[in-house]
Amino acid sequence: MTEQSTKEQVKLENILLRNSVRIHDKLRVQNMIMSLIDGGREKLQIISDFDRTLTKQHVDGKPTMSSFCIFSHCSQVPSVYKEQDEVLRQRYRPIEMDPNMSREEKAKQMVNWYQEAEKLLYGFEFQTKELEDVVRDGGTELREGTNIMLQSLQAAQVPVLVFSAGLGDSVSAVLRYYSVLLPNVHIISNYLRFNGLKVNGLQGDIIHSFNKNEHALEKSGYFQVLASRSNVLLLGDELGDAAMADGVQNAGTVLKIGFLYDRVEERLEEFLKHFDIVLIDDQTMDVVNGILDLVL
Ligand SMILES: [Mg+2]
């Protein structure tokens, strides 16, 4: 082993020793990270969820606003939308989280949810500029170190796909507000469609939490552009996020990092099956940035 790779091993050991880190197979993860290091910046791409992955899961126990939540906090959005949207949330959110329902059945129900929610998105004027005001006033915070991560990826010319089943207009607004809507960042999400100044549903096919995989991406052409970047660092906070890299062609090493905050005991085992590294109530990007330090 060279002196350089011994140093890397020591640094890596230290990263993985953090309190928040849980790993099912440590040797496998170490080998995966060494393979990412070997591939370097040229072979790397990042695929990240947005809500509660790039943003914090909570601040002092209070959940952060999701991208759809930012939208419904806008004063331009009529109260009838907010009420009916909440009714749908109460009905479908338990289904989304139900550990006993099959993925296929959930996916069907998610399509129903988004289709019904989309019907509410009609006929009122909306200027997307207000989204940034809500971010500023409501304090949707990026995870500590998200800024550094995105800036160093931009400096290294490593592409970042933000893949979100949330509202793309809010995703853009948050990243813009924190000055990290950088040229290497590409967002695939649900965007509002407009007819003049009025909201007119959503653009294109719906992305929900159980179709964040190759099918949603086939049409985007994104992965063709990235065909040479076979190594993936994937970040998410829901089990469905673990499938986000399934459309990467000729995938090499795909290292999946999952952030887990609520109902840890109940969900940890399942998270460890889907993610290579699970971070328990870690509201920072320190582990990710530690790995990137070695790779870039
Ligand atoms: Mg999320």
TrEMBL record:
Q: What EC numbers are recorded for this enzyme?
A: 3.1.3.5
* UniProt-listed Pfam families: UMPH-1
Q: Which reaction does it catalyse?
A: a ribonucleoside 5'-phosphate + H2O = a ribonucleoside + phosphate
Top-level taxon of the source organism = Eukaryota
A biological process from GO = nucleotide metabolic process
| Descriptive protein name | 5'-nucleotidase
Where does the record place a coiled coil? none
One molecular function GO term is: 5'-nucleotidase activity
